Amino acid sequence: MLLPIEEKKECTVTMASALCAAMVQKEDDHEMALLINKTFEYDKAEQLRVDAEEREIILQGAKEQSEECQRLRNETMKQNQINEENARLANKEHCSFINNEILHLLVEVSGITNDQAKAIVIAIAKNKIPNTTINY
Q: 106 and which of 36, 44, 83, 117 could share a cystine (Cβ 3.0–4.6 Å)?
């Protein structure tokens, strides 16, 4: 049988051991919590970095697409100007051909001079002679 003093000693030793174990457990839990926090902060920082990279990629893609659209728009405008100029030159050449045919026929048929026929064609082309038109 244990004497009360020995019981108290044993109880104190048991309590001291339990207290030490609790303190060690608390320290281990604290270290685990710090590791979890570090992991969480690392994951959060990594996610922010990945999000920033994705935004940068999206912005770069949008910028490239915008530049490509602008380049195509400019190219289309230049091509339209070239097409309009070609159409204008082709029309001018066609009108000149028709006017020269009329000029030669006037000289041939009526016997007027080349300068007189040219003056008549110019007057008709500028709508200075009523009820007379040249269909090109």
A: 117
